[in-house]
Design goal:
Elements lengths: L1 H18 L3 E5 L2 E2 L4 E6 L1 E2 L5 E4 L10 E5 L5 E10 L4 E9 L2 E4 L4 E8 L4 E12 L2 E10 L2 E10 L15 E5 L5 E2 L5 E7 L4 E6 L1
Parallel strand pairs: 3-13
Antiparallel strand pairs: 1-2, 1-6, 4-5, 5-11, 6-11, 7-10, 7-12, 8-9, 8-11, 12-13, 14-15, 14-16, 16-17
Amino acid sequence: MKKFFTSLALFCATFLTIHAQDCVFQYEGKPLEDGATVTIKAAPDIFETLVCNTNPSDNVANGLFIVNKTSNKLSGSAKITISNKTMETDAILWCMGGACEQVTTSTKTKDFSINANDKTAVQYDCEVKREGDMLTKLEATVNGKTYTVNILFTTAESHVTATKTAASTPVAFFTLDGREVSQRPRGLCLVKFADGKVRKVVGK
């Protein structure tokens, strides 16, 4: 009988280990339940362009991430599906696993990887041309299990005025691969400010 219970305990432990969550989405430093919705209200960037951004440059550590909870490097595939889109947008960009690309269709997929016990940012940005909402479902599949988070971009209660200071004056522009350019490029770019800080912003 003792052997039976020992075997049963080992089986349960193995079963739980196999089926434990390898990954979890995280927002504002806290893990999200599978299928949770993150609401992002549009706000003006330093150029006074109304944008929605899952990882705003002034608060990157509290943005949206997918976290690898294992001691192994994980690889997977991700898919976004845009629906219920009443917001008119320009330059929708999706970065995950270090690779960025422009989103021009309602669905898009990409591969990604996360180092052991590490996390990777889910950078999802857009410029707002007309008020409304845009719901995006992000599904990340790793080791046969799919993790889901919904991203709701909205202009509701987004009447905020951008404030410029001398320190926040742009002094140089760079592409994502670090090449300096003479003017602000379209899409996601790096901007160096007078205070020496470099931030990722969505260009027009």
